[in-house]
Amino acid sequence: MTGNEFDPTGILPILDGEIGFEEAAALTDGEAETLRRLEIETLGLLASTLEPVAPRAGARERLYQALAVSSNLAPVVSLAAVRAERTAAAAPVARTGLRWGLAAGLLIGALGLGTAGWLVLEQTRVENQLARVEGERAALVAELRERERQLSAEREARFGEVSRRNEALQLVATRGVAVCPLRPVGQATTLQPDSFAVLYMAPAQRTWYVKASKLAPPPPGRTYRVWFESENGPVYVGDLRPAPDYDLQFEAAGFEALVMKGVKVTLELPGQHSEPIGPMVLFGDDKMMVL
Questions:
Q1: H-type helices in 174-208, by residue range?
Q2: Domain-located, residue 127
Q3: What is the pLDDT of residue 75?
Q4: What is the DSSP letter of 65?
Q5: Less crowded by CB within 10 Å, the N or C end of the chain?
Q6: How far apart are alpha carbons 209 and 178 in whole angstroms?
Q7: Count of alpha carbons within 13 Å of 180, Cβ hemisphere only?
């Protein structure tokens, strides 16, 4: 074997562990060259020169470390070490990613819960507002219906009043109507001397009419009551309406055949219709025929 030929057996002491890594680093240039060439050719030449044998434990690692020392290269580590190093380096990143994922999940969950809570509150607010509006609408409808009922009652009352006054006017203006004036009597001549009333009667009319003027308001719980004086005693006719009208319109039926001796107005308690017990205020017994 010449100086340029490579003797692969020269590397066996390194593989067998007989030469240490520090001694291998102090090899000559030729030996270092041999080790560099060994980096490329050792394994193949060993297979063709030596009989196949199983490498000893750690042979590969010692070989790569020897090559690294001789060629000033970085130490070569095993695949398992690289994998362990990568796993160790990736672990913090994985933990960081996990933490960020958990934080993002918690944030999204919190936002979802907040949105759901806001939607519930908003729905409750809208429902309360709708209930309030519905209550206001119902109250307004009830108020409008009550007002409509009052207006209808007032309208009917006004129509009735107009009809009653028209009948009274027609009675007063009818030819052949008989009138009977009533004047103050008793204490009324002093308390209300200017008061008076007129009874209008007409055979052709179905209603008769009494109209009083300048009467003082009756005491509380009292009312002005009209009576006809007949042969059989007083006959109740009706009550004068309260101020300011103080009038009475009544059906003539039942009184036409009555032999009337006079008309009087007394101050009575409500409910007393059989005979007058209160003081007499106005009285008249003179009938005059209007042509």
A1: 188-191
A2: yes
A3: 52
A4: H
A5: C
A6: 11
A7: 20
Judged against a pLDDT cut of 60, whether residue 5 lies above it is answered with: no
Mean pLDDT of the region 179-208: 86
Give the structural domain span for 166: 92-173
pLDDT at 20 over 60: no
Q: What is the CA radius of gyration of the chain?
A: 67
Residues 6+ apart with CB under 8 A from 230: 258, 259, 260, 261
User: What count of Cα atoms within 13 Å lies in the side-chain half-sphere of residue 157?
Assistant: 6
For residue 40 the two structure tokens come to: 């490329």
- Does residue 208 sit in the same domain as residue 134? no
Q: Which amino acid is at 65?
A: Q
Give the pLDDT mean for 74-90. 60
| Cα 251 from Cα 238, distance rounded (Å) | 10
Please state the rounded mean pLDDT for residues 173-181. Answer: 75
Q: How many alpha carbons fall within 13 Å on the CB side of residue 202?
A: 20
Contact 164, 172 (CB under 8 A): no
Instruction: Give me the helix-helix angle, 29-49 and 59-70, nearest 10°.
Output: 150
Domain assignment present for residue 83? The answer is no
* Domain assignment of residue 84, yes or no: no
Please answer whether residues 258 and 230 qualify as being in contact, where contact means their C-beta atoms are separated by less than 8 angstroms.
yes
Tell me how many domains the chain contains.
3
The answer to whether residues 179 and 288 touch, using CB atoms and an 8 Å cutoff, is yes
Question: Which residues have C-beta within 8 Å of that of residue 140, sequence separation ≥ 6?
Answer: none
Where is the domain boundary, 173, 198, 223? 173
Q: Quick check: is 266 in a domain?
A: yes
